[in-house]
Design a protein that fits this description.
Two copies of one chain form a homodimer. The first copy, chain A, is an all-alpha fold and 196 residues long. Chain A has a domain of 137 residues: Tetracycline Repressor, domain 2, CATH 1.10.357.10. Chain A has nine helices and no strands. The longest helix of chain A is centred in the middle third of the chain and has 26 residues. The first copy, chain A, is elongated and about 60 Å long. In chain A, 42% of the residues are buried. At the A-B interface, helix 1, helix 6, helix 7, helix 8 and helix 9 of A face helix 1, helix 6, helix 7, helix 8 and helix 9 of B.
Chain lengths: 196, 196
């Protein structure tokens, strides 16, 4: 990694953490530059525009997400254990590590009404995420863990809905039972989908 | 209603609609003043601060929510029909009427990391919302529609999770099947909770 790449990676690390708290739009390039000990123009030497920075923050989040959630989940046996591992890792991901919780959830309502390249990048990552869940469910059907006629996209919608609600109950409503509620909901959903 | 009250109500109506698109923090007092044909200081004659405006926007949303979702749902027979009516009205609420979808969902990730009076107001309204769902579920248990040992707070968590995911799939992922997915998920959840 060149020195320039290292600097860019360090900026993106700090920017990702900060943006989960203030939002990608709320991110101030001046504040971020101060945090990493650069001038604003020094920071802009690494990014074409604020939009480019925002997109690269999302891409950085996606790489981290694969490292912390997807790859460890893939180490679990395929089928239901892998789905359970994914959910457990996602709950960890959203509740520790990043100051403001899952960056994709944070950005979701921020960008749903803002067409443009940042929204497109976000939608791409979120589609990958729901497709990853659907694929895991399809493998669980193949393994004979889940029923043959399972609508795997509907199943992914329902898993994702529980993860969203967890984020909401834990971070906004400060509900100490949030994790237990999410785990119960996932267990019920998986049980309802099991092959007889 | 005095002239001052009428002006304030008209400002809040426009402000609510606009804030669902740009966020409560992204709301520009200057832009809002122009939209309602007032100067910035003329607008501030009606509100103590931007924070006061943000809180009153949420209170306005809550009043509208009762009119459009809660009251019509209460017209349905108590028990499962009332829960179904609530869900159907909520899906309408989030997908029509306001430019940026449900204002409570929009504000949720915006304020989860911003302690203060606006967050407190938002949390108050969202607690009322989840309690309303839990109360409807408790009535459905009393009516013999849902099983005696139902955890009504868990049920409310799960209903709310589906509504959040609907918002996300419909508004961000532009999934044309979002409503059908949400309806299917709710129907499954209610069926699993039914008394034998």
């Amino acid at each position: 990694m060149s020195k320039g790449d290292q600097t860019r990676a360090a900026i993106l690390d700090r920017a990702l953490d900060h943006s989960t708290e203030v939002g990608l739009e709320g991110l101030s390039v001046g504040t971020l530059a101060r945090k990493v000990g650069l001038s604003k123009s020094g920071l802009y030497a690494h990014f074409d525009s604020k939009e480019d920075l925002q997109r690269q923050i999302l891409d950085t989040a996606a790489v981290r997400f694969v490292d912390r959630v997807v790859r460890p989940a893939l180490a679990a046996p395929r089928g239901v254990p892998r789905i359970e591992a994914f959910v457990a890792r996602w709950l960890d991901w959203s509740s520790s590590g990043l100051a403001g919780g899952c960056p994709f959830v944070s950005a979701a309502t921020e960008f749903d009404d803002r067409p443009g390249p940042v929204r497109d990048t976000l939608v791409g990552h979120l589609r990958t995420l729901t497709e990853t869940i659907a694929t895991s469910a399809a493998l669980a059907v193949q393994e004979g863990h889940l029923k043959d006629n399972l609508d795997v996209d509907q199943f992914a919608f329902q898993i994702w809905s529980i993860l969203l609600a967890y984020h909401h109950y834990a971070r906004l409503l400060d509900d100490v039972a949030a994790r237990a509620r999410a785990e119960t909901a996932c267990a019920e959903l998986i049980d309802a989908a099991r092959a007889d």
